């Protein structure tokens, strides 16, 4: 939910690539890795301000993987559709991004590193007291209207969307949170980590909100770093080894907690039902 589906959007005109506004010719540049960042919508995994990459869980991990190795990481921020288009055309070499097998965003152009970054956990944020907690099946959502992010994928939920379940696409998190806050919809389904991150920056009405587990409908699944399938084997081996060490040392968890709280911030009055 990290999930993000990199299909179906109209191509955007502007591209930010290290501030240059164009895609560099990087063929043969094996001493550099080109990290692909989605413009907006992927916080706290990738944080973007004014078209520039400014950290995030996955962004910090990628930077740490090559620290002290002599390899340079270039962050490139793209609108989501343009990102996939550039990879499909082979215009960027030695790229690294994040993906999940259930999304398959890069359609055979990438190769997953061995160690998963994390498992997703989806919840529904709701102000409707009649919503069951937890939601045990799609039948519990019959007749409900549920916000999801436009052009992102929600395995298990999309297949249930019909006249009995209405999915309401939102262009960003703020819109989705406002719809919940104003009781215009029955809930907003997303990864718990992403909802909590954006909720902490939301200044609308929050005291009616509660989290409802929806993992029986949208199952947990792993998210990975994915690299250019033509990346040199020794570079992939380096990334695999360093990611394994990062996870084993607990540093991955420390990076995660810099962006994602274990619980909702105490100043936000949200009733959490797990």
From TrEMBL:
The record's keywords, sorted A to Z, are: Signal
**Protein's organism:** Marinobacter xestospongiae
Q: Where is the signal peptide?
A: 1-17
Q: Which Gene3D superfamilies match?
A: Periplasmic binding protein-like II
This protein is called: Transporter substrate-binding domain-containing protein
**Source organism, top-level taxon:** Bacteria
């Amino acid at each position: 939910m990290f999930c993000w589906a990199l299909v179906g959007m109209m191509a955007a005109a502007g591209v930010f690539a290290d501030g240059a506004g164009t895609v560099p010719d990087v063929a043969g540049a094996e001493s550099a890795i080109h990290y692909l960042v989605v413009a907006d919508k992927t916080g706290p995994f990738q944080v973007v301000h004014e078209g520039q990459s400014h950290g995030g869980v996955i962004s910090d991990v990628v930077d740490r993987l090559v620290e002290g190795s002599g390899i340079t990481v270039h962050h490139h921020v793209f609108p989501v559709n343009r990102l996939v288009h550039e990879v499909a055309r082979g215009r960027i070499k030695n790229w690294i991004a994040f993906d999940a097998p259930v999304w398959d965003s890069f359609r055979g152009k990438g190769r997953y590193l061995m160690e998963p970054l994390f498992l997703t956990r989806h919840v529904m944020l709701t102000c409707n007291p009649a919503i069951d907690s937890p939601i045990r099946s799609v039948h519990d959502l019959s007749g409900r209207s549920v916000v999801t992010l436009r052009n992102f994928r929600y395995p298990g939920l999309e297949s249930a969307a019909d006249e009995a379940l209405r999915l309401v696409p939102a262009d960003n998190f703020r819109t989705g949170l406002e719809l919940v806050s104003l009781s215009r919809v029955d809930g907003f389904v997303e990864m718990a980590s992403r909802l909590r991150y954006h909720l902490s920056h939301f200044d609308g009405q929050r005291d009616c909100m509660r989290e409802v587990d929806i993992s029986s409908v949208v199952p947990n699944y792993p998210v990975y770093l994915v690299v250019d399938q033509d990346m040199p084997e020794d570079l992939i081996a380096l990334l695999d080894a360093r990611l394994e060490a990062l996870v084993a040392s607990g540093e991955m968890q420390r990076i995660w907690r810099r962006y994602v709280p274990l619980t909702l911030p105490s100043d936000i009055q949200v009733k959490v039902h797990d």
